[in-house]
Fold YceI family protein.
Amino acid sequence: MKMNVLKSALALTVIFTLVAFTSAVEKKKINVEASTIQWVGEKLTGSHEGTINLKEGFFLMENNELVGGEFIADMTTIDVTDLEGDSRDKLMGHLRSDDFFGVENHQSAKFVITTVAKKGDVYGISGDLTIKGETNPIAFDLKMNGNTATTNITIDRTKYNVRYGSGSFFDNLGDKTIYDEFDLAINLKF
């Protein structure tokens, strides 16, 4: 009898200890209508800029600290904001074509956070980015302030089989050379 009482007391102690030290992970859904992704791509003779809409996303939080997340961008919404009329339509069509992001077959891009490290008032983020069916690791800093998260990311498009106009893959492009890296300015609301 004493042994059963002792075993029960020990089991309850273990359960209460696990409950006390186990915190719940909270999923914070991103408000996609209030969030923005702005892109800038440069070429030898200038640059272009535009936007891409976020389709869905969430952060995983534990004890009010970032521990993970996943985000999907709607590549069919690639827009050009620095041109108008036929020039704008032509560039948007080209960006959506197989020369660039091939949105007919690759309608979304995905980023999954794999590791998070708090560095003062920012988080060091590592994760896997998938564009055009190609997945590669990327790392960047993310600043969180209240219900807003912001970051600037530079992506090497050639790692995602987006090589059109790349001086790294084609010779004699002259002033038609498009730089391999493009920049994203991301502002997420949750």
